[in-house]
Amino acid sequence: MAAKKSWQETLFTTNKITIKLPSLKTPFKLIPFGDVHYYSPHCDQDRFHTFLDRCKRDDDEYTRYLTLGDLDDMMSASERGALDGKIHESSEATLDNFVLSQTTNLLDKLWFMKGRVLGMIEGNHHWKFRTGDLEGKTNTQYMANRLGAKFLGGLSVMRLCFKFENTSKKACVDIIMAHGKAGGKLAGTSINQLEDMRRIFPLADIYIFGHDHKRGCWPDSALQITSGNGGGINIKQKRQWFVRSGSFLRGFVDGQSTYAVGSLYKPTELGTVRIEIGFSRDRKNGKDIISTDIHTWS
Fold first, then answer.
1. For the chain, how many structural domains are there in total?
2. Residue 156 and residue 17: Cα distance in Å, rounded?
3. What does the alpha-carbon distance between residue 85 and residue 281 come to, in Å, rounded to a whole number?
4. Following CA atoms 58, 59, 65, 70 in sequence, which dihedral angle do they give, to the nearest 10 degrees?
5. pTM for the complete prediction?
6. In this structure, what CATH number is given to the domain that contains residue 61?
7. Would residue 1 count as lying in a domain?
8. Residue 5 lies inside a defined structural domain of this protein
9. 90-144 pLDDT, tens digit each
10. Lower CB count within 10 Å: N or C terminus of the chain?
11. Which domain holds residue 63?
12. Residue 52 maps to a domain
């Protein structure tokens, strides 16, 4: 029997966020990251700290972040279930205090992102507090609250609407996010799982998963049918991006037992991806449309 997920993992959310930019020439940067597994002995903490240092040094005021879950390495659903009804309340309080201490330490490292994290997805590794003021909430919800971010649950639709100082016209980008699924060793399987989301939400601009620790961005296209002048129709090609947000968990460490060795997984490319959204304006043939131009790096 599959381990029972928390309601936070199965929560569906929608969010519309307005971003103000000074002009159409100002690019917007978005950095999704997750699967840090910070307290695992196999986490590459040096690489993660280097990533954070780069964010502090290079990211400007028009950069935002998304987290895709599993920032720490707390318990999976089966591990949490194994404790239900089997430990005393005093032991639950002890575990709560331990997790809160670890979460606070991780928050200290992310504190420079406060107010710039758009949202936080719930991963399958998290802790649900059992006592006190935080009872029933997860440490992901606690971090989201402290960082001024939206808690996104397990699957989220986010629309970013961009406003510009020199025009009343707007541009929007739709993002579908989930912690994601694993279940395949090949890169094609990872992409196919993202494409499955396109069958549910066909015309989003960006689809982002974590969980399988793969890192990469793959473009694809769909055709949109719109109304044309004189009662005709227009066909517009829409570029869409499939994104796996990467990880900081090493799979092969000399002298240590790891999940990757046990399952004979390939090593993954550690690190994160970066998404940049640019804008252009078309005023030809009676039109006045702002279009987005999305590029990615991994």
1. 1
2. 13
3. 60
4. 10
5. 0.93
6. 3.60.21
7. no
8. no
9. 999 999 999 999 999 999 999 999 999 999 999 999 999 999 999 999 999 999 9
10. N
11. 12-297
12. yes
